[in-house]
């Protein structure tokens, strides 16, 4: 697995998490205080979430995650603040896989 797969996932995890928080604040403002509009924010978050799903699926397939783990990572993009806790754990695991791929293979010949 290449490091750029992890980098793409990390960037989208943070960007999507921040936009989800912005969207959450906009929803609270709209329905709690009857101010603002959420149309543009929701559309931006929707597009970013789709890109996040693609990159998380790419990382998961290359890391050979079980389906349940992939679902948990994808669900973290739907729960405010969850991505900030899930992303560092996934990054540690993926970096270990990348480091394992980078070590030279010993040939038994």
From TrEMBL:
<keyword id="KW-0472">Membrane</keyword>
<feature type="transmembrane region" description="Helical">
    <location>
        <begin position="69"/>
        <end position="86"/>
    </location>
</feature>
<keyword id="KW-0812">Transmembrane</keyword>
<feature type="transmembrane region" description="Helical">
    <location>
        <begin position="12"/>
        <end position="33"/>
    </location>
</feature>
<protein>
    <submittedName>
        <fullName>DUF3817 domain-containing protein</fullName>
    </submittedName>
</protein>
<feature type="domain" description="DUF3817">
    <location>
        <begin position="8"/>
        <end position="92"/>
    </location>
</feature>
<dbReference type="InterPro" id="IPR023845">
    <property type="entry name" value="DUF3817_TM"/>
</dbReference>
<keyword id="KW-1003">Cell membrane</keyword>
<feature type="transmembrane region" description="Helical">
    <location>
        <begin position="39"/>
        <end position="57"/>
    </location>
</feature>
<keyword id="KW-1133">Transmembrane helix</keyword>
<dbReference type="Pfam" id="PF12823">
    <property type="entry name" value="DUF3817"/>
</dbReference>
